[in-house]
Amino acid sequence: MSTPIRKALISSFGDPSHIEIVDSQIEPPPANHVQIKTIYAGMGGGDFLMREGLYPNQKKAPLTPGYNLVGRVHVNGPGSTKFKVGDMVACLTVYDADAELCNCPEKYLVPVPKGVDLKQAVAVVLDWTTAYGMVYRTTQVTKGQKVFIHGLSGSVGYALLTLCKHEGAEIYGTASPSKHDELRKDGVTPFSYKNKDWIQAMKDVGGVEACYDPLGFESWDESWQIINPKGGKLVGYGGNQGVLNGEVDNRSVYPYIAKLVAKGLVPFCPKSTSFYYIDRDQKTFIPELEALYSMLSAGKIQVPIKKVWTLDQIPEAHRERNNIPGIGSMVVKINDDLEA
């Protein structure tokens, strides 16, 4: 028997008027799935790109966004025995987290440690696992290295900042000028992206050993210029230039990814490149999420939350995405945790 729910719906692709909150139904969880009562869902660039129809390989409309969630097990489907009703779990859902209930494959569920702040716990699922993989696997940052992070004040950018700082790196990056003073308190050197002064400034210090660039397109060519000519890596991810600038950019990012990767294949060139992405089927995903939860539980990291929306406010979140003050991640509160 289906259950009535409320959820976000992207009925067709386009501006924020194309997302609404609707009454709907959810079927019982199928075999090897678990129905989760969503408490918090993440809110980030992937959701905005999906609404515009620009996220790589996304579903066709209509669809319900919501890339990740934390919530309590509501119903176990046939064959699902790993979790008990009431257990707190996290999931990288890709879709459907912006709903009161969500059916998730059991194999993707990760227990959320008791006592952690659930807003921080949901931000870790996507934003911080993305950063973790880049810092500890792709670039293997070590003490004393110089790193450059585009979007220092954003959800992934601040996670990169925190993890690189944890390893003793010297940190530079771009951010809106209004956030520079706050970022300097974290011991980083911020620049404005638009005036391009950061390019010469980084050349003057000999370049960086790692640069993380979510903008894509022409920005990857610019970031390549600041890599240490004796050896360093440019890591592209996202391709969110339009989202971060409040514009719609309908260009395909794939030719630019190919160009990015090709830069790193030139023989005898000490500089290298990589395009990074998150996939819940990667064998590293769950262990890295568990490692981050251990760090969160131990107080080794703290995830700043700059805005908490409600389910009804999701359309407003899409309208105001670039006008939210503060640093860190945005999340959506879907249900109260009545079992807490």
From TrEMBL:
Question: What are the residue boundaries of the Enoyl reductase (ER) domain, all occurrences included?
Answer: 14-332
A GO molecular function for this record?
oxidoreductase activity
The family database entries (Pfam families) matched by this protein are listed as: ADH_N (PF08240), ADH_zinc_N_2 (PF13602)
GO-annotated cellular components: mitochondrion
- What InterPro entries does this protein map onto? ADH-like_N, ER, GroES-like_sf, NAD(P)-bd_dom_sf, Zn-ADH-like_protein
What name is this protein filed under? Enoyl reductase (ER) domain-containing protein
Origin organism is Pseudopithomyces chartarum
